[in-house]
Amino acid sequence: MPDSRPRRLLTQNSELRKIRVWNWTLPALATRLPDGRTISTCPSAGVCAQACFARAGAYRFPAVAARHVANLAYVVDDPQQWEWHMMWELREDRFQGAWVRVHDAGDFFSDAYLAAWMRIMRTSPNTGFYAYTKEIARFRRMVEPDPPPNFRWVYSWGGRDDDLLTPEDRTVDVFPDEESIEAAGWHSQHDSDLLSVLGPPNVACPANNIPQLLKRQAGRTFREWQTEVDARRAEKKSRHSP
Question: Which residue ranges does the record assign to the Gene product domain (predicted)?
């Protein structure tokens, strides 16, 4: 059987190339590997799962989806080789002084996977790394006490751990459009994805213009949407409590 592991791990699209950012990605939310195993790649996802841009559009193209599944299989089946491969690739000149976005889909789905990324970051001091994450409890335990100096992250509203967020945390919310961002007095990262971690706080992402996803979002931010869902669950639970 031919080896399906990608020769190069980090990729770029046209927008990221403009700002010297490279990208690593996994399948969004969960996926089934060729041998039948199902892996949850976003274990703390909340309402974001219902309006996830990485589960629509080009992400569903067969070649793109296959590449993301191959990435996940590599991480799960041969984590030491994957980690070494990533460290080795990051030694190339193109990554010196550049940035790597860890995930445009997927998240830090296990302690072991997050620990591997932290080792990779520490062995690549001339490269900046950043990430959006909903793994707040995991980051509280593993990252915040001693973060790699070249790692920046932003906690993303709309997940199961929203109640753990505080005003001191750097956070990002997904708004329906640029007009709603401006009206709320937040700061859009539309001009550069790096603004999510380097720009002013109260970071906002405008939702992707995907009609069915905008319809589900229904004019709310992800934070507002998640708050509504959590309130309904709490009310239902209280009604069924003895």
Answer: 18-232
- Which residues lie across from 154 on neighbouring strands? 132
Contact 216, 167 (CB under 8 A): no
Judge whether 207 and 177 are in contact, CB under 8 Å. yes
Contacts of 1 (CB under 8 A, 6+ apart): none
Q: Which of 113, 156, 150, 112 is nearest to 133 (CA)?
A: 156
**Model pTM score:** 0.93
**In the chain, domain spans:** 14-239
CA end-to-end distance (rounded Å), the chain: 57
User: With b meaning 16 or more CB within 10 Å and e meaning fewer, what string describes 218-232?
Assistant: eebbbbbbbbeeeee
- What's the full length of the chain, in residues? 242
87-123: b (≥16 Cβ within 10 Å) or e: bebbeeeebeebbbbbbbbbbbbbeebbebbbebbee
% of the chain surpassing 90 pLDDT: 86
